[in-house]
Amino acid sequence: MADTARRSYDVVSSNPKKKRGSDEEEEEDKAYAIKSAKMTTTKHGDPAQALASARHEFGEHGGVNMSIEASATFTVMEADTMRRMFSGELGPDRDFFIYSRHFNPTVLNLARQMAAMEGTEAAYCTASGMAAISSVLLQVCGAGGHIVASNCVYGGTHALMAHFLPRACGIATTFVDAGDLGEVRAAVREGLTKVVYVETMSNPTLAVADIPGLSRLAKEKGIMLVVDNTFTPMVVSPARLGADVVVHSVSKFISGGADIIAGAICGPASLVNSMMDLQHGALMLLGPTMNAKVAFELSERLPHLSLRMKEHCDRALAYATRMRKMGLKVIYPGLEDHPNHGLLKSMANPGYGFGGMMCLDMGTEEKANRLMHHLQNSTQFGLMAVSLGYYETLMSCSGSSTSSEMSVQDKERAGISPGLVRMSVGYSGTVEQRWSQFEKALSRMQDEVSKN
Known about the structure:
Elements: H1 2-6, H2 8-12, H3 23-43, H4 47-53, H5 79-86, H6 105-118, E1 122-126, H7 129-141, E2 146-150, H8 155-169, E3 172-176, H9 181-187, E4 193-199, H10 211-221, E5 224-228, E6 245-249, E7 263-267, H11 269-275, H12 282-286, H13 292-301, H14 305-325, E8 330-331, H15 341-347, E9 357-361, H16 365-378, E10 383-384, E11 394-397, H17 408-414, E12 420-424, H18 431-451
Parallel strand pairs: 2-3, 2-4, 4-5, 5-6, 10-11
Antiparallel strand pairs: 1-7, 6-7, 8-9, 9-12, 11-12
Helix pairs in contact: 4-6, 6-13, 7-8, 16-18
C-alpha cells in the first residue's frame, strides 16, 4: 500500500492511454504523468485555463462525457493481481482499482480536475467539506498537536477545533487575529504547532488572509499553512500564493445548485499519499468517501464555474456599491474602503472580481430579521437559508445561524455583529430587477422601524 501511495502523484494527471504492460511502458506512463502534472500546476496561472488543460475522460463507448463507475468493488482477471494491488505494486495510476473507499475512477477524475484548478500536485474528494477539514487536521496534527487558527472561521470549523479535537485526541487550537502576523507568530508553539489554519475570506466577516505572508511565516516555522478556499474558488488560488493545502466545501460555489454535499482536499502528493495509507491514513481509515454519481455531476459543473463566479462577483460589487451610496453599513472586499481591498486585489486572479459574498450590518438581530423577512416574503429578492454559491441570493443572520456554535465572547473577538446579514449573491434575474426588489424591502423595513 505504501508503494501505491507513492504512485498517487501519477494518479493526479496520468496518461489517458491505459497501459498494463511491461516495466518500460510503466516508466513511460510515469514520465508522461509527471510531465503532465507539472504543466497543470505551473504553466497556467489562471484556474480556468488549468482546468481546460487537464486530462479529459471519455465515456466507455466514446461518449464526450465520462462513464460513471458505480461499482463499490472491482474484479481482477488473475488471483495474483489482487496480491500485487494490496502490496502496492499495482495501483490506480495504471487503472487497477481495489475498492471505492480507496480510489474510484470517477471520483479520481474529479480529484484531477480539482488539483488542476487549485494548482496542486494532488487532490482527494470527500463526502463533505467538514470531512475534508477534519481529515487534514487529524492527519497532520496527530494526538497532542497544536493548531494556530483565525479567530473568525465557519462555526462548524470553530467547534471542531475548540471542542471536538481537544476532547477526542488532545489537539489544541489557539485562535488569533490572523491579520496580525505578529500575533500568529507569537502563538506558534515550537515543536507542537503543526498547522496555521485560515479561510481565504473569513466566514462571515469577509476579512482577507494574507496568504503570501502567512506562507512565509509557516515555512520559517516548518509548519503547514492550510487554507479554506470555499468562498473564493477561481477568484484566489491559495496554493499558487504559497499555501500548502487548500480545502473546499464543494457543496457551495463549485456545485452551484444547493443540491450536493461534497468536499475536497488539494495539496502535495505526499499528503494525499499519507492520508491513503492502509495503516495510518485518515481518509483510508475514516472513510469519508464521495459517491461516484456525485463526482460525475460535479465534474460536469466545473467547466462553467469560472463564468458563474464572474457573475456572482459582478453582482456583489454592483449591489455593495449601491448599498454603500444609500448609507448602509456594507462589508465587501471589492469596495475600496474595505481594509483588505488592496490585499485581495494583489492576490486575486485577474478578471474574477472580489468574491460573491457580502455583508450588511443592520446593528441588531431584530433589524436584520425584519430586512430578511421582507427581502424574501415581500419582494422575492432572495431566500433566507444558510449555505452559499446558489444561483439565487441566500441570506442569514450569521451570529444566530452559521456562527451560532461560537460563544458571545468569541463572536465579539471575531467581529461578528448581532445584526450581521451574510449574503451569497445570486445571478438569477437582472441587476435592475433585483435592485428594485431590495429597495422596496428596505423601505418597508424602515417604515416598520419608524412606526415602532
